[in-house]
Amino acid sequence: MVLTVGIIYFLYILIKVYVSVMEIGYVAKAKNLTPVILSKRAYIEAALYKIAKERMDILGSLVDYIIFIFWVGYGLRWLDGIIDIDNELLKSVLFVDIFIVINYIVSLPFEVYEKFYLDKKYGFSNITVKLFIQDMIKTALVFLIFGSLVICAVSYIIMTFDMWWLWSFVFIFVVIVGINVIYPTFIAPMFNKFTPLENEDLKSSIEALMKKAGLKSSGIFTMDASKRDNRLNAYFGGLGSSKRVVLFDTLIEKLTKHELLAVLGHELGHFKHKDILKNIVMMGVLLFLMFAIFGNLPLSLFADFGLQKTPYAIIAFFLLLSPIVAFVFMPIMGLLSRSNEYAADKYGSECENEVALAEALEKLANENKSFPRSHPLYIFFYYTHPPLVERLKRLGKKIDDTDNEPMRENCQA
User: Which phi and psi angles does 220 have, rounded to 5°?
Assistant: First the structure.
């Protein structure tokens, strides 16, 4: 059983690395083609940034494999042995908390490298050491308080009910929905400042769009995203009465009014087509499958790893192996998501016009240095949005992408 689990995890890492290697090779060749969508300088920078990110992801995957071998080969038994507490509920909370903290510490150098070197090199990151540490402390406090309560509750359910995996799924699903409800008004303000939109003309236009779509929100806000990052974005956050429109200050600065309304129209398209509810349902199905799988692991599996089938061992195995299940279902979820994006683009173009949305997408790509070409295999596994070239073509933009045709044929051969 130990060998089987090890082989499955190895294949998972191998596929991830292979897809990243294919993407690096594809982008390295594509950066020498005639630039599309982006300016020549932005096109080259986006390619170099993409390659650097994928190389970092490969290294991260290899580290993930090493830490996985550590946990299943020694770490879980070691952690079980050093926490000598009779209270199983308290032991579960301490075990899982320490397990998560160790994994975070291992991943921390990658986060530091990305924010303080890679993103700064390419003009994204504005974060300071002070702000980074403040964010870490706030995140740690939220995790230690609310995360520990969730771990305690799941552990209690495991200890109390025969069908614990089903009740744990229900509990976690409710928690996730609850987090989406409180996130805009409670969690997000811990990290960013939200101020009501002051531009009355823009505010009136946004309110008219929302009224047309049948969306009632708790307000339209500007977020001080630029204190951390220069990327452009906007989103509709929350569920029920907590729904709010959030515009990054960087977005307001870079887009014209019509472009901004087209982008918000796209987001309203997701609301109009009930994509948020669809995503919640998809997430629920995936979560249910995960709990059904990990709730029925045989006793022999735990015995082979030198563990008893305790709540903390079950949760640890869930955290270690659930990324594999998620990875398997990512292509299906990505396919549905890409279809939803096309429909949202259509709605957004109807709110303003196709030209405004196309120009907005081009500006977003240039400012965010999003490389417009990608390997088909990478798109299959990771893209939740259609390739930008295809989105722009559907919006009526004429793009000469003939240089890319031979590469597509080589990938399909």
Answer: -115, 125
In the Cβ-directed half-sphere of 316, how many Cα atoms lie within 13 Å?
31
pLDDT tens digits, 148-191: 999 999 999 999 998 999 999 999 999 998 888 888 888 888 99
| Cα angle value 299/301/303 (rounded, 5°) | 70
Torsion sign, CA atoms 300, 303, 308, 312: negative
What residue type is 314 in one-letter code? I
pTM of structure: 0.88
Beta strand ranges found along 146-305 (DSSP E): 194-196, 220-223, 234-237, 244-248
Phi, psi of 219 (to 5 degrees): 150, 170
Longest Cα pair distance anywhere in the chain, in angstroms?
69
The answer to whether the beta carbons of residues 97 and 148 sit under 8 Å apart is yes
Q: Cβ neighbours of residue 243 under 8 Å, at least 6 residues apart? A: 184, 215, 216, 217, 218, 236, 237
